[in-house]
Hints:
The chain is of the alpha/beta class and 408 residues long. The protein has helices at residues 8-12, 17-33, 53-64, 77-91, 105-117, 132-140, 158-174, 197-209, 238-243, 268-280, 287-298, 302-323, 354-365, 389-403; strands spanning 40-41, 100-103, 123-127, 144-148, 179-185, 213-217, 244-249, 262-265, 338-339, 367-368, 370-371, 381-384.
Amino acid sequence: MMAPDFAKRILKVEESPTFALERKVNKLDAELEKEGKSVIRFGMGQPDFNTPLNIKNAGKKAIDENKTKYTESTGIKELKDAIVSKFKRDNKIYYEIDNILVGNGAKHVLDNVMRVFINPGDVVIIPKPFWVSYSQQVILSEGTPEFVNFKKDFKIDIEHFNYVVSKSDIAKGRGSGIAKLFILNSPNNPTGMVYTREELEEIGKICLEHNIHIIADEVYEKFLYGNLEHHSIASFSSELKSMTITVNAVSKTYAMTGWRIGYCGADSKIIKQMTKVQDQSASNPCTIAQWAALEALNGNQDSVEVMRKEYKKRRDYIYSRISSINGMECTLPEGAFYVFPKVSNFFRGKIKNSFDFADLLLEKANVAVVPGGAFGADEYIRISYATSIENIGEGLDRIEEFCSSSLF
Ligand code: PLP
């Protein structure tokens, strides 16, 4: 039989490094179990908390009430109304119901946005370090990701941003390589960096000047630990509101990663095109999960603060532990649940890059971290602290020992 003749675009797409790591760790864990050992997992960006009880009960109730059929492909009216209220309450963005679309998690919503904007060769501007799926979704839509450099504090290098944008303006004359979208992610995965209002205003101004739509991925908005507030760029002006697709999800905020509910607010013309994609591909997100998400957004919010406080405790602990490791450099993350320490001081001998570092750390110390190279920043590794303080303590003991070993 001949080999399948796959589409060129899918062959260009890389597998997700976080899912690939998880598969590798599962295999290793099964072997270690025989020796009574296990891997400390700092890989997946997923809350270790259970979904709050009121939300689980809403899901059960939906099943008992036979709310198990198809819904409108972009979500039930009740949930869209709750999202309109949420955007107003939390983000000061005044959307109406026809500005809202509900999908299968933020990831699905983001893919949906890419599909309605990108022609083959169109550019999507992505600041480094970036969440792994952005660039691959762009490639899946036959677009071209263009990356922007970052400064020491993990914020965008505005000079380089202007350069990338002006390159695209030249391309406009040729009709290809046009920058259509800019991806903004604050609080940021993988760095935990949070933009101030002034910084967002500067970014917004450049995007407006060059007619570039902004995807504002705000899935970590509730997890902030310092004095910084979360600002939604779409709330700044009517121009920015019409040029921004504000993406969010219940996944991280309410520890609901498996329920698969994400959503966005955008100009109704954009939602109309996205609706066509959803009508013809995934249809509605899980009906039961939509009812549970409704309770998440409208119900008691105390659990979010409980989780935030716990993440803050872990952030402070992990930061102090990492900072005391000789050779590792760490910036205090302001939000999300990741630290992104610099490990390039250990690049010698067998270890040439962050992938080698992460591989050896897993092999020798049984600690799983994601190499920074996967996020476009090879001098770093990402450690997720969405795991218990005990695990963090044990994992850091192992990392400390690994870093001081004769391997270096
Ligand atoms: N955006 C960012 C920045 C993320 O880190 C993630 C998940 O890790 C997502 C989107 C996807 O969220 P969801 O699980 O709702 O698809």
